[in-house]
Amino acid sequence: MSIIESVKNYLESCPDLSGKAININYLSPERDSFSIDNVPKNPVVKRYSDGESLMQFCFLMAGRSVYDSDAYENMQISQFFESFEGWIERQNSLKILPDLSDLGLTPVAIEVTKSGTVYDTARTSARFQIEARLLYRKKN
């Protein structure tokens, strides 16, 4: 299993994503589709003298939704952002983190690093995304 697969499995437990298919590095053009996309950033946050490192896996949680001039539909997107970010914060404070044990890694925290934003608006749909990162320890 890879880190991105572990994050995918973890996010599938979010009530806001219940029953939704989550792809990896592919956002379908269909509405109500989701994807976890890699964000290229330096994975090393800090190296310790004992050989251990604090690492990060940065990702986007992207989705496609209905988008038009209807304030109700657009409010639904905003509510999803707030709810998803709140879920991440609660999980983090409870130390309920992605399982990295198969990889020999120790999860430390998961956090939203950039609040939800709407991108690529078209006539009937829009891509929205939230940037996040998983911090973990790695023994070298």
How does this structure look, described?
- By secondary structure, this protein is of the alpha+beta class.
- The chain has 2 helices and 6 strands.
- Strands 1, 2, 3, 4, 5 and 6 form a 6-stranded mixed β-sheet that branches.
- Strand 5 (106-119) and strand 6 form a beta hairpin.
- The model has no long low-confidence stretch (mean pLDDT 90).
Structural class, by secondary structure, is alpha+beta
Number of strands: 6
Specify the overall morphology.
Answer: elongated
Q: How much of the sequence is in beta strands? A: 35-45%
Radius of gyration: 16 Å
Oligomeric composition of the shown chains: single chain
- Identify low-pLDDT runs: none
The CATH architecture assignment turns out to be 2-Layer Sandwich
Counting structural domains, the number is: 1
Helix content: 10-25%
Query: Which CATH C-level class is it?
Result: Alpha Beta
- Under CATH, the topology can be stated as STM4215-like
Explain briefly what this protein structure is.
With 140 residues, the chain is α+β, with helices and mostly antiparallel strands. 23% of the residues lie in helices and 41% in strands.
Structure characteristics:
single chain; 140 residues; alpha+beta; STM4215-like; 6-stranded mixed beta sheet; 6 strands; elongated
Detail the topology: elements first, then pairings.
Layout: H1 3-11, E1 22-24, E2 33-38, E3 44-47, E4 52-66, H2 71-93, E5 106-119, E6 125-139
Parallel strand pairs: 1-2
Antiparallel strand pairs: 2-4, 3-4, 4-6, 5-6
